[in-house]
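Narrative of activities, Objective 1.

The group set out to show that a structural description can be obtained from nothing but a protein's sequence at a throughput compatible with the screening campaign. Below is one input-output pair from the validation batch, recorded exactly as produced.
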Amino acid sequence: MAKTKVNDETIYVYGGSFDPPHEGHLSVIQSLLDQHRQVVVAPTVQNPFKVDKASPLAIRMEMLEAALENFSIPYTKDLNKLSSKCVYLSSFPYHFACDFVDWWRSFDSREIYWVVASDIAEEVTSWKNWDAMKISKYVFQISNDISSSDIRKGLTAPMSGVAEVIKKHRLYEK
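Output recorded for this entry:
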């Protein structure tokens, strides 16, 4: 991931389905946190570009918590406890990035970088209200050998912690 020269007045928002989260997601989160002061992980209620219905947001939040703990990444779900070198795990229910950005800007005026994978970097400018959001994109490369869809199909094993949540809620069973 290339470093972007910005100051502490910048927030990095990593949105996505995270259904389920996997090592690639956590690698990106750790890399962002290594380079920047604060990172927001914001799972969407339903990715508007995906046909399949996502697992319930509360369960994906539970999986993200297990994954962050498994990787020993500091996080909080309480905005009042957000500190330097900490991930804020957002449960704000949004469908489109612009909805999340509007909500975030209702209480925080920092510059926003929306974190996107290189395979969709060109598409984001066609997202709903992209130009109106007046945010920048932060592009990263994620390993193509890890995929949430392969985990859902049972082709790849989920990471520890996430596997227990999947089993507990009987997710992805045929």
